[in-house]
Amino acid sequence: MSQHPAPNSEVKLVDVRFLLLPLPEFNMLPFGGFLDKLRFSADEEDYSQQRYCQWTVAGLGAGTITSSSGITIEAQHSLAEVNFAEFDYLIVFGGRSAQASMQLAPDYQPLLRKAAKQGIILVSIDNACFMLAAAGLLNGKKTAVHWRHEQEFNSAFPHIPTITEQLYCIDGKRISCAGGAAAIELAIELLSRHSGRTRALKGLADMLVDEARQQHHHLKSLQDDSQSGAFVGRHVKRAIAIMRQQLSLKISVEDVSAQLGISRRQLDRLFTEGYQMTAKDYWLMMKMNHAKWRISNSTMSLQLIAEEVGVSDVSYFCKVFKRHFGITPGSLR
Questions:
Q1: Of 76, 139, 144, 220, whose CB has the highest number of CB atoms within 10 Å?
Q2: What CA–CA distance (Å, rounded) separates 158 from 247?
Q3: pLDDT of residue 259
Q4: How many CB atoms lie within 10 A of CB 331?
Q5: Which of 274-302 are b and which e, b meaning 16 or more Cβ less than 10 Å from the residue's Cβ?
Q6: Residue 156 falls within a domain, yes or no?
């Protein structure tokens, strides 16, 4: 796929220009979804001609960038040689690890600050928000964060307000997207602003996408525990959503049931019917599974991970973890 601009005779037709910056070990789903949406809207047919929107892929240096799946793409330009004034948006695609993305901040910060000073809109997708935050480029801005990384982001950047109930968030010259397939919706929104809704929606059927989800779309998969195969009602689904959203808060099951407008006893009965365990046991399982994932996939201290799941005493956290999994947290590292 050509990354070069259209011929000079067609430059006047271009509505919007994107500079795509995938970080090392970037995730293919948001990158591919975003780019393919641009491609379908770029011309009248399906020729991948960059007439109405243009895109260029850049890296910290020119050359190959390896995705989290091992697939490589070619960055034909280094970020240092790019003229930011030629673009409307700089789209940064995060890597597989939030910690790794955050540690890249010193390398990218000078160039990202330069881009911001020249008026380009900075967009973070997936874990790229960690890098932009570490570079001081999200101060005072609301940020859409993937629900799995909300607690980690809040721990690292408590001064930055986070949003997990939106697919993306537009706050002035900063835009953030939770990642995954939500990158397609973000591409549609940005294209709509410059090329109109009709052109922005072009190609959705080819992508086998039924419809563009709204910014505040609530994920059904976030409410359902599909792995268990359990059939549960709306109260339990809502309770699970609340538990995920308030993983680090020291609130009780009584507080959750109060938010639902039902009693603690009724909530326990519903969880026992669906999962053969009480609501408290289910919430503990959720917290321990999250902690186990964080221990295996980050370098965060056990103290911070314990705080992420609402436990202030790390010794107690280790005891509960061992009782739950039969191994100590340290054995996973």
A1: 144
A2: 15
A3: 86
A4: 10
A5: bbeebbbebbbebbbebbbebbeebebeb
A6: yes
Structure tokens at 280: 């408290």
- Distance CA(199)–CA(84), nearest Å, equals 25
Tally of domains within the chain: 2
Shared domain for 188 and 233, answered yes or no, is: no
Q: Is residue 82 part of a domain?
A: yes
Q: Using one digit for the tens of pLDDT, what is the confidence trace for 61-92?
A: 999 999 999 999 999 899 999 999 999 999 99
The CATH number linked to 63 is 3.40.50.880
Same domain, yes or no, for 265 and 158?
Answer: no
| Boundary residue ending a domain (201, 232, 263) | 201
Rounded Cα–Cα distance for residues 302 and 64 (Å): 36
24, HSE (Cβ side, Cα atoms, 13 Å): 13
Q: Are residues 159 and 264 in the same domain?
A: no
Among the listed residues 245, 244, 240, 248, the one whose alpha carbon sits nearest the alpha carbon of residue 306:
248
Q: Are residues 144 and 13 in the same domain?
A: yes
What gap in Å lies between CA 279 and CA 260, rounded to an integer? 13
Q: For residue 240, what is the enclosing H or E element?
A: helix 234-245
Cβ 112 vs Cβ 135: under 8 Å:
yes
Tokens standing for residue 298? 């980050």
Q: What is the pLDDT of residues 166-198, one digit of tens each?
A: 899 999 999 999 999 999 999 999 999 999 988
Note whether 105 and 163 are same-domain residues: yes
pTM of the model: 0.72
Is residue 318 predicted with pLDDT exceeding 60? yes
Nearest alpha-carbon partner for 87 in 117, 54, 128, 109: 54
Residue 215 pLDDT > 70, yes or no?
no
98 in the same domain as 44: yes
Domain span at 150: 8-201
Tens-digit pLDDT profile for residues 22-44: 999 999 999 999 999 999 999 88
> What is the C-alpha to C-alpha distance for residues 33 and 93, in angstroms, rounded to an integer?
12
